[in-house]
C-alpha cells in the first residue's frame, strides 16, 4: 500500500510539473506567432508600398500551388492553397496598398488577418480588370532566386487567364522582391537581433569545454551538438549542418567530419540560425591550448588583430545612398593602398610571405543566409548595383591569408563574419561581433 501511495504521489507530482511546464511552452509558441504576425503586418504596411512605388509596379501577383509555395509566401501570410492561389497587391499610388487573397485560407491564415479581399481564384481576372494596372509584377528573375518563384505552368495559366491585353503588362518583379525582402521595419530588426544572440551563444558554447574534449571530440560531433541545440530551442538553420574545420597548424581536414580536435588546433565555424522570418550568417574561432599555454601563439593573435583592422575599413565605407558595388570598390581601394596588403582570391593566396591577401564578400543577409538585397560581394553582380538603404541587413564577411611564423611558411586563413543593419549613421551591429579568439583547454 505504501509503495502504491508513493507511486500515486509521484504521479501527481509529475502531472503538476507537466501542467506548470505546458503553459510556458504554449506561451512561447504564441509569442513567436504574434511576433511573426506583426512582422508580416509591418512588411505589408510599411515596406511594400515604397518598394512598389520605387519600382513603378502598380500590381504584384504572387502565385502558389499546393506543394509548390512561392519563396515569398511565408512573408505574405502563408496559408493553405488547395490547388492554385494568388496573393495580389494593388497600388492606387497613395496610401495603403490593397491586399487580396484568392484561393488561400486555413486557421493560421485567418488568425493573422492581413487581406482586405478574400475570393476564389476564379475571381482573379475580374479583380485585375477592375483595378486596371499599367505594370503587373510577377516573380520571374534573372539572378535572385527568391524573385523567381513563378513556375512555367503557373505562368502559362496566368497568361491564359489574363488574356492578351493584360498579359502585355506583365513585368519582372525581381527588384521589387529584393527591396521588399531586404528592407526591414523595427519588428523584423528585433527578430534579427534575437536570432543573432541565438547564433553567437550556441556557437560560443560549441567552441568551449562544454562540448569539446581535446583528443576525443570530433569536428562532426561539434556540428551535431549545435544541430541538437537548434532542435531543442525550436530554431531552423541557414545552411544545413554547421561547417566546423581546422585552420591550422595542420591541413584543414574534412568539414564537420571525423577530425579529432587536438591541442594546438585553430578551429573555425561558419553557420546561421533561422528565427521566424530571419536568418543569420556568422563565424567564430577558437584555439585549443597546449599544456603550459594560456593564449594562442602570438602570430595567430596578430593575424586575428589584422583581420579586425580590415573589418573596420569595411565599416567605414558603408553608408546609405551609395550602391553596394561602390562601397566594395571603396574598401578594396583602401586595402590595395595599405602596405603589406593585397586583394586576393578566395582560398588561393599568393606565395609571397611579405603580402597578406584580403578577400571581401560582405553580402546581403537576413531574409536568407545569403540574402536578396544590396550585396558588397562580387559573387552577387546584380545585387552590387543596388543602393544601400536604411533597414538593409549585411553580413560583414572577410578572409585574411597571412603567414604565422610559428607554423612555418604556409599562410593561414583568418575568417571574420558577423551581421548588422544599415542605418542613417552607417552600419550598426545587431549582436556583438567576434572580437576574440575563444580558448579551449
From TrEMBL:
Alphabetical list of CDD domains matching this protein: APP_MetAP
The Peptidase M24 domain, residue ranges: 193-424
Annotated signal peptide: 1-26
Keywords noted in UniProt: Aminopeptidase, Hydrolase, Protease, Signal
KW Iron (keyword) present: no
InterPro entries on file: Creatinase/aminopeptidase-like, Pept_M24, Peptidase_M24B
MF terms in GO: aminopeptidase activity
Name of protein: Xaa-Pro aminopeptidase
Organism of this sequence: Blastomonas natatoria
